[in-house]
Amino acid sequence: MIRSAVLEYGSLAQIVLNYKHGNIIAVFDNSVYLNGGDSLCCLGVESLVNGPVNIRTRLSNLSALRVGDTWSYTNNRLTLGQLYNCDNTKARLWSLPAKVSLSRTLNPGPAFTDCITLIESRLLAEGHIRNTLPGVTNSLTLQRLNYYQTLIAKSLLSPGETEQYTVPSELTGLLGCGDGLTPAGDDILLGVLIAAFHFDLPKLADCLVTWLKQHAEINTSQISYAHLLAACEGQAIEHLHAMLNLLTIRMNRSDLNTEGSLKDQTEKVQPIKSQLEQAIGTLIQHGHSSGYYTLCGVLLVLKHLAGTTLKKS
Amino acid sequence: MSANDLIKNGPRVIGVGLQGFIDDLNSQGQQAVAVDWRPPASKDLNVLAAAESLSSGNLDKMIAEANDQAITRMHTAEPMLVDVQLAGDVIEGLGDHKILHAGPPVEWENMCGPMQGAICGVIVLEGWAKDLQAAATLAGSGKVEFEPNHHHSAVGPMTGMTSRSMPLMVVENKTFGNKSYCAINEGLGKVMRFGGNDDSVLDRLRWLESTLGPLLADTLLACDGIGLKNIIARGLSMGDEMHQRNVACTSLILRELAPTMARVAEPETAYEVLKFIAGNDQFFLNIAMAMGKAIMDPVRDINGSSIVTAMSRNGTDFGIRVSGCGDEWFTAPVEMPRGLYFPGFSEKDANPDMGDSTIVETIGLGGFAMAASPAVAGFVGAGGAADAMAYTNSMAEISYSRNPEWTIPAMDFAGVPSGIDIRKVVNSGITPTINTGIAHREPGIGQVGAGVVNAPLACFEKACVALSERLSSS
Amino acid sequence: MSTVVNEVRKGFYLDSVALMRLSAEITSMGGIEEAVLMIGTPSNLQIMQDAGVLDSTGESASPNDLVIALRADGKSNANRALAHANKSLEGGALKSSTSEARARTLRGSLTAYPEANLALISTPGTYAAREARTALELGLNVMIFSDNVSLEQESSLKNLARQNDLIVMGPDCGTAYIDSVPLAFANALAPDGGNSADATRTAAIAASGTGLQEFAVLLTRLGGKLTHGIGVGGRDLSDAVGGLSTLTAIDLLANDKNVDQIVLISKPPGPDTANLVFEKLAACGKPVVACVFNQASDSEVTGIRYASDLRNAAELASGETLDRHDTQQLAQELTGSLSASRRKLVGLYTGGTLCTESQLILNRAGIKTTSNAPAPGSSASDSETAHRIIDLGADEYTVGRPHPMMEPLVRVSEFEQSLDDPSIAVILLDVVLGYGAHENPAEAIVNSMQQVTDTKDKPVVIASVCGTEFDPQGLHQQRDALTASGITVCNCNVAAAELAAEVINQQS
A222 in contact with C at a CB cutoff of 8 Å? Predict the structure, then answer.
């Protein structure tokens, strides 16, 4: 039996542990998914990103576990199959990084444009790498993802004067769309939702949460559903929250626009900008395409925000 | 854990047998583990009874004390590489027409091909016959005496040839004052330890004798010897297990040797010698072997101890010696290694397992330290990192202790398993795993692969019975 | 001609990188026009449909399944690609290792689990004593599930345990509860050991497996709470062993604050041992109930309450009474359709103690029985004319085949023969649930019953189910299935045997 320690766990993962036992439903080299009650959590190696459904441990490799192995949790000890034992006594509950709010007093115009351009160029560059798989199915999937993104922008994110957001019924086609553990469609929706929480768009968030709780369970895998449920609580992986915070910091410094003096450019804008670029890069690298599509979702909200804010000012 | 503890704290179960009972407990959230139980490998009831009697009651207590002493001697050893000397000068009685070989005793008729080939090569090298054919005739005539290296504080890899004019590295165990010897590693390719015996092989041996040996000796004398324990400790953390992988330790020893050598040697000679060592990843193996012998010799003959003091094979038989049974050999036919072959070779080319290099496993390295060296696990066809870990864990199950100074980073710095206990081998049916090179069955071709081989259980069974008889009669 | 082949792997997850790699790999194989590995969400199925790679197999996928969809220029290329995909998914190519790191020895496991305090040994009997000795030497208590441990070995192990303040449960200990945790063949109790916190906390010492199971089931059904059930093995109370484990158990339970009363379940002990054990029990300072089958009343010890059977033991221990049906009236209903020529009774038992108990109940009702495992008062001769109670768990039935509690099919041939036998009036059955038992023991019985659904003249079948609602099989599901198939299900083995006796008495 290999022994180890739990380092950090998310609040939803904690709920799963409270079921005391369950099964391992998926095994990867560096992580496994555990079920407990109706929920799931993801347990992984130290380098696993913190998140609401994640448990980070000091274990180094989990591929010896088998799907169907049982896990149990008693006396702060988490036992995985016959192989691993994790002590939970010194573990920390992961909490969301403190949120940086968007300043309402500054004119955000140029900074917004700057950020949107930055994200768009990164997505463009990465898209070439990610979307080169051959085949009809692949191109059909891409077409559909693009179609739904346009739909989100034109319909969901165009609430009109009343600010009543409604989810078009057609959007269920985006749930579970694409391959992988968390299908690309789900990632986009997650990005939209977390960005809505982050940029204080409660009406948008509320209507998405209600809609997701109605439709997501039957339209996507239970693993992806677990991540979406966490997003309904406003929580996602640390990389996403970190990126959103840096994005906000950048936008709040709209006094520093790209046309400023050379001195301002080098001393004030660049440090924030390079940190932000780094955070975007980290997010994009998450999973195979999860981070990429999450960022697509964030971008949709950012453009919506730019539109409304700029209109007002 | 008294019965009271059971009642008070509830059952914390280890299951031996049906897995289902443990699954049931796990499914209720109870912690319980299952032993991966198998029926004992020994079918002989006398053997099982002997192993059981040695594992229980007063005998167990007595053996534990003896083993504690054995382990203390192992762990307090201070092996140092101190010198290089000619075999004839340091090994008593090693004169003309006498050759030391690997493994337990074996007669010419029973030697495998590579061993006979190497013997012939040595006879030519020593000038006792003018060519290989004459050498074979001489060897078969009974006029050449053969003895195991182990009987003379020496060890040798594969065929393990040791004769009068060969330079031997000298390792001294400073704690107990004993010395051990091992020939210098000839490098890879066609070499005598794999039965090679043509001119190129013999020329290289002559160069070792005339050039490398003396210079190494001068260097070691000038730097007052080199402590080996620390090199091993660092080598383990750099991915060596000291049997199939010695690249880190070879580099470390080179680092110790080079500065002094630059001072004591002609530049051109130093260049040649350093280049030879640098080009030979396995150079350190022979040093590790001499060290192993130096560590284990003081452990021989502790009354009652069930610790293995030597494991060795001569290509025909596998033999072990056990501390509590003095210098008696317990032998069984050697097994074929399982592993990976170099391109163009296959199992049908392989010679049965051979060499004194298993002394490395006897001190807890090689197959016992597989977890330190996942690369070797792959090289010998034993699987990936997790498999390497499993090898070391299962060797811990048959070892009496762990070595606190030689630790494996990947296992949270657990020490390598130390001190093979024959009782645990017989009781569990787990036999020592040995990392080994595979020699071609024909003399003169050399290494054709690498793999793992298990020590035959029968050696340990015989040793258990013998130890039990000794202890019950005393 | 293009061929589309789909395969669905249920509940299969693979990380995206591996999936991409694999689908790219397969697409590049010769003759493959399109290869997709996607999870079967509705929207993905739609995409695959549009791409022309979906067939009816793939359509059935759910969002948690992996769909492998291929379109190839012929069947053989498609199959080759599918085989490659499957092989990779099995782990060879995508997983780094398949090795498990479980220890091979008790000693090795103890290093990994130093808090362990009990070894549960279920190896073949030949090796059990050896493992038990090792466990004791390592300071572990021992439960030996295995049988075929010799009397000498049992005695020496138990002496060794006593010297070291340890306890040996067994050999042939099928059931135990420690701190309300069921071990080996045992029924699941309510999460806190059963019922309310203020219930009397009972601990049992039992020589047998199903005896302890039936007692635990009935006790908790009556609102009692079982803290421990210590199995000591069938021979512990013989004079050869001298009750070593029973004596240890009495000491333990007498000193345990969580135990209010002690129940002993056993066959009659050896005479010397009886004195020792009952005196110790009477003096243990806690109320004691003894259920000793066929105990002669003149040998009863004052201060101990004696129970006539397991139901009675559970009632005495809980202070409650189990529901009784009107046996006479129920028997009348059952015999109503029975032809007069049907006179005989057959009992087909999977639980040894339940088999013994039934014989005693029938003997008490004046019915002479024969058995392969005769209780006192029954005879061993297996005459065809007599009422037979068969222990299907006895050695002669289990050599080379599984125990009937694990594999109910073992009982089927005897059961179906009896159903067809025109001289048989009553078939008496036990159905044992719980951990270790078969996942659906009622099924085999119900299937046999269905074959005689349309037969008018057939024996009455009476059964009892030894189980709780917390058992993996579920008490009421099993009971309902049996009832629905026309079996009269009683609430305990005693009630079933009493009803069977009444039926026989009314027929004769």
Answer: yes
Looking at the structure, do residues B83 and B31 belong to the same domain, yes or no?
Answer: no
Q: Which fold has domain C327-507?
A: Rossmann fold (3.40.50)
A100 domain-assigned: no
**CB-count exposure of residue B315 (10 Å: 0-12, 13-18, 19+):** buried
Q: Are residues A86 and A197 in the same domain?
A: no
The CATH code that applies to domain C106-318 is 3.40.50.261
Rounded to an integer, what distance in angstroms lies between the CA atom of residue B24 and that of residue A1? 18
Interchain CB distance below 8 Å, B1 and C140 = yes
Nearest to C277 by CA among C260, C253, C257: C253
CA C59 to chain centre: 40
| Fold of domain C3-89 | Gyrase A; domain 2 (3.30.1360)
Show the beta-strand stretches assigned E in chain A: 2-9, 21-27, 31-36, 39-44, 54-57, 70-74, 77-80, 84-87, 92-93
Residues A157 and A83 reside in one and the same domain: no
Domain ranges, residue B232: 79-293
- Give tens-digit pLDDT for C52-107: 899 999 998 888 888 999 898 888 888 888 888 887 776 533 333 333 457 888 88
B317 and B266, same structural domain? Answer: no
Please answer yes or no on whether B386 and A21 come within 8 Å at the CB atom: no
CA distance C43 to chain A (A): 5
Q: Could you tell me the two tokens for C196?
A: 């309310």
Number of domains in chain B: 3
Last residue of a domain, one of B274, B293, B312: B293
Would you list the domain boundaries of chain C?
Answer: 3-89, 106-318, 327-507
Asked if A118 and A199 sit in the same domain, the reply is yes
ipTM attached to this prediction:
0.84
* Å between B25 CA and nearest CA of chain A: 10
Tens of pLDDT, residues B104-158: 999 999 999 889 988 998 999 899 999 989 999 999 999 999 999 999 999 999 8
DSSP string over C91-122: TTTT-S-------SSHHHHHHH-TT--EEEE-
Give the whole-angstrom CA distance, residue C429 versus residue A233: 55
Taking CA–CA distances from A69, the nearest residue in chain B reads: B23
In 3D space, the residue among B16, A132, A285 whose CA is nearest the CA of residue C118 turns out to be B16
- Domain total of chain A: 2
Q: Does residue A262 carry a pLDDT above 80? A: no
d(C-alpha B274, C-alpha B261), whole Å:
9
> How far, CA to CA in Å, does B61 sit from each of A248, B304, C114, C164?
71, 10, 21, 16
Tell me, yes or no, whether A83 and A179 share the same domain: no
Give the closest residue to C393 by CA, choosing from C185, C94, C89. Answer: C185
Task: Please give the residue of chain A at the shortest CA–CA distance from C54.
Answer: A137
- CA dist., res. A293 & res. A149, Å (int): 10
A30, A36, A81, A74: which is closest to A56 by C-alpha?
A: A30
Q: Tell me, yes or no, whether B40 lies in a domain.
A: no
Residues B227 and B367 in one domain: no
Q: Judge whether A3 is closer than 8 Å to chain C, CB to CB.
A: yes
